[in-house]
Amino acid sequence: xxxxxxxxxxxxxxxxxxxxxxxxxxxxxxxxxxxxxxxxxxxxxxxxxxxxxxxxxxxxxxxxxxxxxxx
Length: 71
Hints:
The chain is mainly alpha-helical.
């Protein structure tokens, strides 16, 4: 399947954000397991926003591509 002009870039951006958020969650679990309790704010924000925003963008991109391919 070849990319057409005007295809959305939401899916790759969403997957990237989701992956970054997932890595942040794993880092938080590892840090808690090693006894750290004072975690940086940026790590918590990345974990808290990366997963849902990445998932939303990915789903929106898939829906948008599906609607576009129907036409």
